Each structure stands twice: as structure tokens, then as C-alpha cells.
Amino acid sequence: MIKMILRRFLILIPQLVIISIIAFILGAMMPGDALSGMIDSGLSEEARQEQRAKLGLDKPLPARYVGWAGGILQGDFGQSFAHRRAVSELIRERAANSFSLALLTLVLTYGIAIPLGVLAGRFSGSFVDKGVLLYVFVALAMPTMVLGIFMIMTFAFGLGWFPPRGSVDAIVLAEGAWWEILLSRLHRLILPTSTAAIVGTVGIIFMLRANIIERKHADHATFARAKGVPEGAVFRRHVFRNSLIPVAAGLGFAISGLLTGQLFIEQIFHYPGMGSLFFSAVRAQDFAVANAVILIFAALSALGMMLSDIFVMLADPRVRVV
Asked: Taking the CA of residue 39 as centre, how many other CA atoms within 13 Å lie in the half-sphere pointing to its CB?
């Protein structure tokens, strides 16, 4: 396993280099530059060029990329022109919010999907199975944006149980104790995480249900029943554990996908995370922020692939990933 992890890390380096080059080139090809819309319209063209020269925007593209990449190797992602702050500070603040959102969503997703998938697979064809499939079809047919708006209209504006936006109450953040701030954050996480979890359970339930139904009738399970092994023991030892292997394979992708795929959730609920930071950076042509977020998302995706392989090997030691 250690060799596999080291090998994946070595493969990750050229992948990130290629992705960083592509992201930098695409950002440079967009109309205008990072100072578009931020320079006083009354300035002369010479003054504009001086402003761009101070920030190195007049240099050739390869030289600008080398300077940017060299700063990243030293932990410096550059300065955000829109926020007037270091990019690393912005990412540090937003990453904490995105991590909280992703972690709670992951717990809810698997906490809902695994029990429902097990019930649907073990009692396939029953009313329980039909009820689970009805939930799956409704969740599958509901777009994330529509579901998010429905949750806001029902539980925020209709019932008034949860706030419709933000990550923490401003008054609590300024005057409250640490536990009050924590409760405020958790309270505001319920709506977005529930929305993301409902959508995220669909694939896991389908996969787990199909795996359990297939393995219930496998030869090794039939042989165990013929030997007199109780049905409960057959399910635990021969059906459930083997059915979890594909789910474990997708867990790593789920972890990285939650961190990188909450764009719509953060936009719908106006949650200040990495996704909303990326959208605002693109709109403001704040390329230092946008490129840094793309690079982090790419690294997380590669990390998710490695985690998936590790989880598969832990779930079934017989599996060897090259």
C-alpha cells in the first residue's frame, strides 16, 4: 500500500503541472485582465500601462506563468485584486467553510444511503423496497437547484426553522461564546447539507441495492445456506461485506467531489465557500484566485482517486491496486 501511495504521489506531480498550465492559459485568453473594471476610467492609456507593468501583467505569458508557479511552490498564490488580500488567506477562510459543508454532507449521505440500500436489497420486491425506490426516483428527478429552492421556501420562509443563507449569524459571531458560534454554524448547515445529501444518496442506494440482490443469489451464499448457516450470518459475512466494496471504491471520489462539487449548493444558499469564491473570482476576472482554486480542486480530485484505491484495499485485502 505504501508503494502505491508513493507511486500515486509521483504521478500527481506532472498532472498538476499540466493542469496549472492549462488553467493559466485559459485565464489569460479571457477578455481583459485582472485590472479590467478596476482602473479609473479617467486614467490615460499610459497610466493604465504603468499600473499593469507594476503587477507584471505586461510580461510574456511564459514569464508570468513561471513567476506564478514559483510563488505557489513557496506557498504564495499571489494577491487578489478584487479582495485586496492574499489569495492564501481567502482560501484558508473559505476552505474551512467548504470542509464543514462537505463533511456533514458526507455523513448524512452515507448515513441515509447505506441503511436504505441495505433494506431495499435485502427485502427486494417488498413494500420496503418499493418505498425506497420511490424515494430514489423522486430524488433523481429533482434537480439540485429546484430542490434547494423548495427547501428554502418550505423550511426557511414557510416554517421559519432555518436561515436561508450564510454560514453563521453575524451577531453571534461578534458577541457569542464559542459554543454559540458552533451551534449557529451547525444550524445554518442543515438546509444545504440536507439538500446535497438527498441528491447524493441516489447513486449509492442504486449501487448497494443491486450489489446485494446479485450477491444474495451468488454461489458462495447458496452454498453457505446449504451448509446450514443462518440467513443473518450469510447476509453479514457473504453478502453485505462484498456489496460494500464498490461503495468503498466511490468513497474517495465522494470526499473530493463534495469539496469540489458544492458549487450549486453554495450559490443557492449563498454559502461562503470555495465554490462561491471561484464564481466571484471568474466574474471579477480575479485570475490569481480562480487559478488557485482550480489547482486545489485538481489536487483534491487526484487525492480522491488515491483514497478510493486505499478504501478498496482496506475493504478487501485480496485486492491489489497497481
From this structure: 16
